[in-house]
Amino acid sequence: MVSALGPRTKGEPVPKHYEAILFDFDGVLADSEPLHCSAWADVLKPLGISLDWESYRRYCIGIPDRQAAAYFCNLRHPPAGFDDVWSLYPAKSRRFVELISCQPAISPAILSMLRRLNGYQLGVVTATERAFVEPALVSSGIRDRFAVIIGAEDVSRTKPAPDPYRLALERLGVRRALAVEDSDTGEQSARAAGLDVVRVESPEDTPRAVFACLDQPTGI
Q1: Considering only CA atoms, which of 146, 147, 181 is closest in space to residue 162?
Q2: Residues 83, 121: one domain?
Q3: Could you tell me which of 18, 82, 208, 218 has the fewest CB atoms within 10 Å of its CB?
Q4: Which of 24, 65, 154, 182 is an active site residue?
Q5: Which residue in the list 26, 65, 154, 182 is annotated as catalytic?
Q6: Rounded Cα gap, residues 78 and 8, in angstroms
């Protein structure tokens, strides 16, 4: 048998089998979280709200946009009104598209990893909207590698609820899948849906972590 990392020697244990691998997008496939932060920071300035990367990284990654907006309100003293902050979401979305269009979002290492995963159905399960995901996949020439993309608009409850991952399993018609996540809320969502989870720190870590998991005889 050939493993994810190369030929397997005779008598070597066979790795745990998965029918599909489901990836979060931001921070797992694409280094786009800094761009989300920059887009929010730009549109929040007129409200007197200063957003820095460290605060965004610690408190806003992996949570729904409305929850992040509520957090932004309290970065100003006195706090800004939620409706005032949330009304900026369309402008933030446009700014994000501008930023991600100016630089590659998906690295060559991620593209190489996806080519090596031909034996698995692949999907993206994200707490953001598909409009922020599909353009990057299309521009990188890999949209057709993903049989399903689940975005925030596809479920009534997003991460950490299990709904996004359950919907992905249903649409793929599989029961055994591996989730690749970079946040607590994402991991909670996947485990609540009955999936094993590989936790990564950044897209640079994703290929190594995925192949290490796939070559474990007993999974994770």
Answers
A1: 181
A2: no
A3: 218
A4: 24
A5: 26
A6: 62
Say yes or no: 53 and 142 in one domain: no
Lowest mean pLDDT among 20-29, 43-52, 125-134: 125-134
Q: Both tokens of residue 21?
A: 């691998």
- Is residue 220, in this structure, part of any structural domain at all? no
Mark whether 27 and 57 lie in a shared domain: no
Give yes or no for a contact between 216 and 189, defined as CB atoms under 8 angstroms apart. no
Helix, strand, coil fractions of the chain, as percent rounded to 5: 45, 10, 40
Whether residue 46 is preceded by a cis peptide bond, meaning omega within 30 degrees of 0, is: no
Of the candidates 80, 101, 122, which is a domain's last residue?
A: 101
124 and 170 both lie in a single domain: yes
Model pLDDT for residues 144-197, shown as the tens digit of each residue: 999 999 999 999 999 999 999 999 999 999 999 999 999 999 999 999 999 999
Instruction: Please confirm, yes or no, whether 84 is among the known catalytic residues.
Output: no
* 26 in active site: yes
pLDDT band at 8 (very low <50, low <70, confident <90, very high): very low
Contact 219, 196 (CB under 8 A): yes
